[in-house]
Amino acid sequence: MNVGKIGKKGQIVIPKEIREKYNIKPGDIIIFKIQDGKLILEKIQEKMKDILKASEPIESSLEFQKRLRDEWE
């Protein structure tokens, strides 16, 4: 069993043995999932810039700006 620690800023320290086994390096993106009451960490294999490039915006920039203006009024 490996034990990690939560730092003052809420950062999680992943034990070295696990980082090496799963090739987790500084700057890697980790997804936090809750499944059956358990917290699961999953490393994203793709680079974040590639994920964002392939994604489509939920709404156009103009629609977003109009909605923000309407909410402020």
List the defining traits of the structure above.
73 residues; alpha+beta; Pemi-like Protein 1, Chain: D; two-stranded antiparallel ribbon; two-stranded antiparallel sheet; 3 helices; 4 strands; 22% strand; elongated
Structure, described:
With 73 residues, the protein is of the alpha+beta class. It has one domain: Ribbon (Pemi-like Protein 1, Chain: D), CATH 2.10.260.10. Helix content is 34%, strand content 22%. The strands form 2 sheets. The protein has a two-stranded antiparallel ribbon with strand order 1-2. Strands 3-4 form a two-stranded antiparallel ribbon. A hairpin with a 5-residue loop joins strand 1 and strand 2. The termini are far apart. The model has no long low-confidence stretch (mean pLDDT 83).
Described by the principal axes of the CA atoms, the overall outline is elongated
Task: Kindly provide the radius of gyration, computed on alpha-carbon positions and rounded to a whole number of angstroms.
Answer: 18 Å
The number of helices is 3
Helix content: 25-40%
How much is the average pLDDT? Answer: 83
CATH hierarchy class name: Mainly Beta
Strand content: 15-25%
Distance between the termini: 55 Å
Largest sheet composition:
2 strands, antiparallel
Low-pLDDT segments: none
Query: If classified by CATH, what would the architecture be?
Result: Ribbon
Question: What's the arrangement of strands in the largest beta sheet?
Answer: 1-2
Total strands: the figure is: 4
Number of structural domains: 1
SS content category: alpha+beta
CATH topology: Pemi-like Protein 1, Chain: D
The secondary-structure element order is EEHEEHH
